[in-house]
Design a protein that fits this description.
By secondary structure, the protein is an alpha+beta fold. Helix content is 29%, strand content 29%. A 5-stranded antiparallel sheet has the order 2-3-1-4-5.
């Protein structure tokens, strides 16, 4: 199998050719959080944010982003994802925890899709309540699990 690289023979950026790789079930889980004032979290939980259902809209935005990752990240392969879940959980007193799970059977992993889902969901939370809390922070976006493919399983500590 040829070496997987993002450079062609002339040293230019190129999409990796994964056609010789075996199709396997690929799963990735990413997590992150949005830290905010406790009053902002209470507003989100009560459903009284001026822009509506913050968690519901952010969940949908994360799912949609996972499906469009190749449009956002250069050199990512367009993938036919078989499953995307994005869970947003209030974490008292001052955060929303976000977890995305992305799955497919294919020749390339879905880490970027899971990370994109979490990031866009977090940005959506920020956007929907920034008028009341500009000091929010998006933190800790990272891959916590990856399985499938030649490199095997990864579990974050």
């Amino acid at each position: 199998m040829p070496k997987l690289t993002h450079f062609d023979d002339a040293g230019r950026a190129a999409m990796v050719d994964v056609s010789a790789k075996d199709e396997t079930e690929r799963v990735a889980v990413a997590r992150g959080r949005v830290v905010m004032a406790p009053e902002t979290l209470a507003l989100i939980q009560s459903g009284s944010a001026a822009k509506g259902d913050v968690l519901g809209v952010a969940r949908l935005a994360g799912i949609m982003a996972a499906k469009r990752t190749s449009d956002l990240i250069p050199l990512c392969h367009p993938l036919m994802l078989s499953k995307v879940t994005v869970d947003l959980t209030p974490a008292l007193p001052d955060a929303v925890e976000i977890e995305a799970l992305v799955k497919l059977k294919g020749r390339t992993g879905v880490e970027m899709e899971a990370l994109t889902a979490v990031t866009v969901a977090a940005l959506t939370v920020y956007d929907m309540v920034k008028a009341v809390d500009r000091g929010m922070r998006i933190e800790g976006v990272r891959l916590v699990h990856k399985s499938g493919g030649k490199s095997g399983t990864y579990e974050a500590e």
